[in-house]
TrEMBL record:
GO terms for molecular function: ATP binding; ATP hydrolysis activity. This is P-loop containing nucleoside triphosphate hydrolase protein. Signal peptide: none annotated. GO terms for cellular component: mitochondrial inner membrane.
């Protein structure tokens, strides 16, 4: 409200003053140029200039002109410095950019989050730290609390950890400066928004990190990135990196947009030691030697000189829970390779995606294609036309060389497709109607073969396919060149059961366990006298109070035998010699007809993981129950 009055005054002042005719005219001529707000400001400025001028006896024009010069110098200086820094940036700085689609991005963000200079930055992004089950060692220095539960006892409660877990702060999208090894670096974090966010909700924004440093060599940035990567993998030497496909965009709701797939790190698990997978030693050795040969640095030359693509395929087959997946992970651990796990049942996975995924595999890795029988990749018998058979046998004729397999598979497909309806059936098995009426893409047999054989498919990759029903697989899938070795997995033999038992209870070499074993040895002579198989519990065993409990194998007191076994286990531990004996007795109670899987035995033992004697005492009832279950084909167990 005050401005119009002032403006009026200014008009008057301007018109009365002899020396201020110029300012008034300047103002009048400038006002329309800058619009209402600015002309008001100019008028205020004029009045102020006039008053100061009157006071200091100075021409207001000089004051205005001085202000104008200062402003112009300031603007010019800024422009000059921008141009100069632009030229420096262009010609005297080196840059390396990292896309958020690359795993180096994750390494860099972790590194930046730990930089003290950046932690104090005024522009940060806060992230909730989500740790995987294998990263929980450092629980922010907080022990979980024990909470009483309705008179049942005290139980662990982790809510305080969740509440107190601090967020991670990383540099926000903008410009940041930081130092590494005494050198200054600049980080520009920028986000590329997904313009289709409303249509494709799963499609994440893409981010870019641009690291720059002064100088015409990117070497300092390269060495920084080497350091960042090394830091990330510092504790990874005993870990196996597990990756699975992740989709960007698409999905069931928007069939018009095909989801793009890439590999995403899903877990970083401790390496599974080979010895923990109970399998015939000769088979294990044969497999290890074969993979070692395939991965040996000299092997590619040997294969190349003979025109044979270097890749190995293995088929692990056998009943569920017999160790197929476990062995695959153990192998990845032995060779220090990342493992890439694909399920062909993933509904948004198309054949193109599968081919892209295979083509983007690193040079050396393990690819695990799980449960291939469930993906419905078999070729319907009536779909195998004479033409198909001929084409396939040509492929087989190429033996394991697999040369031109990608091409020949494609040729197969086109030949089959041109062959009419029956041939086209080869493709269609996995295509199915989704619940909402959408058609799931599915992977056809030829699509899978193309991906496996693809020309760009990485050499040196180890492909492992697992199945419970090898007899349902199409022979094209498992012919030599695609599957070079088949490994059978079976339910547990008595020998395997014995090994599983020992693995479950053997000391892992910690000091505590060594001491326990030493104590056991001392106590052993007085207390342990294991009877021959079948009569092992017929003995005097001291209970907690030092009184003795008479144990019988049959009748009422059998129930108390496992309780007494627990007491003995907890009190005395177990010596290696005793463990061997108990393991043997345990194995004797497992049916030699191999009807129980290692997974089932492991499940039974896990419920008694601190008490081998209790496991031995209870295994008879458990086996009897399993036999009834399998006979009656019921899934409900009476003995857990
Ligand atoms: N041969 C074995 N040696 C050691 N552990 C085993 C063995 N077989 C199964 N297990 C245990 O049983 C569990 C399931 O095993 P795994 O997933 O490897 O079986 P699988 O054969 O891949 O089963 P599926 O066919 O259902 O995928 C794992 O925890 C594993 O430790």
């Amino acid at each position: 409200m005050a401005l119009p009055a002032l403006a009026t005054d200014a008009d008057e002042v301007g018109s009365n003053a002899t020396t201020s005719a110029l300012p008034a005219s300047i103002m009048e001529s400038l006002a329309p140029l800058f619009g209402g707000q600015f002309s008001h400001l100019l008028k205020v400025f004029m009045v102020a200039g006039k008053m100061i001028g009157d006071r200091l006896n100075l021409d207001p024009t000089y004051i205005l002109t001085s202000f104008g010069i200062i402003w112009a110098v300031h603007r010019g200086g800024r422009q000059l410095s921008r141009t100069a820094s632009g030229l420096v940036d262009q010609y005297l700085r080196s840059y390396v950019s990292i896309s958020s689609h690359d795993e180096l991005y994750l390494h860099m963000i972790r590194f930046l989050g730990a930089q003290p200079k950046l932690a104090g930055s005024l522009s940060l992004t806060a992230e909730t730290i989500s740790k995987t089950a294998w990263e929980e060692q450092d629980d922010y220095g907080l022990a979980p609390t024990m909470m009483p539960v309705d008179g049942y006892g005290d139980y662990l409660n982790f809510s305080n950890q969740k509440a107190k877990a601090p967020p991670r702060f990383v540099p926000a999208p903008s410009l940041h400066d930081f130092q590494y090894c005494g050198k200054n670096f600049r980080l520009q974090r920028s986000k590329e928004s997904n313009s289709n966010a409303l249509i494709i909700p799963h499609f994440k924004d893409r981010e870019t990190l641009v690291i720059s440093c002064f100088g015409r060599s990117p070497e300092p940035i390269k060495s920084l990135l080497r350091h960042v990567k090394e830091q990330f993998y510092l504790d990874h030497h005993a870990k196996t990196v597990v990756k699975r496909p992740t989709s960007h965009g698409g999905g069931h709701m928007h069939e018009s947009f095909s989801a793009r797939h890439s590999w995403m790190l899903v877990a970083n698990r401790p390496v599974r030691p080979m010895k923990t997978v109970v399998l015939d030693d000769d088979r294990k050795k044969q497999l290890l030697d074969d993979i070692n040969e395939c991965l040996h640095p000299d092997t590619p030359r040997w294969y190349a000189s003979r025109g044979i693509p270097l890749r190995r395929g293995y088929l692990f087959y056998g009943p569920p829970g017999t160790g197929k997946t476990s062995l695959s992970f153990a192998l990845a651990g032995v060779f220090g390779l990342d493992i890439y796990v694909i399920s062909l049942l993933e509904p948004s996975l198309t054949e193109d995606n599968l081919a892209t995924l295979f083509n983007s595999l690193p040079r050396r890795c393990v690819v695990l294609l799980e449960d291939i029988d469930t993906a419905g990749l078999s070729r319907p018998p009536d779909a195998i036309t004479p033409k198909c058979r001929t084409t396939r046998s040509v492929n087989e004729g190429q033996g394991s060389s697999g040369e031109n397999k990608g091409g020949s598979s494609k040729n197969n497909e086109s030949t089959e497709e041109s062959n009419g309806d029956s041939a086209r059936e080869v493709r269609s098995v996995p295509k199915s109607q989704g619940a909402n009426g959408t058609v799931k893409q599915g992977i056809s047999l030829s699509g899978l073969l193309n991906a496996i054989d693809g020309v760009a498919s990485q050499e040196g990759r180890v492909l492992i396919m697992t199945t419970n029903k090898p007899e349902t697989l199409d022979e094209a899938l498992i012919r030599p060149g695609r599957v070079d070795m088949q490994i059978a997995f079976t339910n547990a033999s008595q020998k395997q059961a014995e090994e599983l038992f020992k693995r479950m209870y053997e000391a892992d070499g910690t000091e505590e366990q060594k001491q326990l074993a030493a104590q056991c040895l001392k106590a052993d002579g007085a207390t342990t006298k294991t009877q021959p198989s079948g009569h092992h519990l017929q003995k005097q065993s001291p209970d907690i109070d030092g009184k003795s409990t008479k144990l019988k194998e049959n009748g009422k007191e059998v129930a108390s035998s496992s309780e007494a076994a627990v007491v003995k286990d907890e009190k005395q531990g177990i010596t290696p010699a005793e463990l061997s004996t108990i393991a043997k007795e345990f194995a004797d109670k497992i049916p030699s007809s191999m009807i129980i899987s290692p997974a089932e035995i492991q499940g039974f033992l896990l419920k008694r993981k601190r008490s081998p004697r209790r496991a031995l005492a209870e295994v008879g009832d458990w086996v009897a129950d399993i036999i009834i279950q399998k006979k009656n084909r019921t899934k409900i167990s009476q003995v857990q």
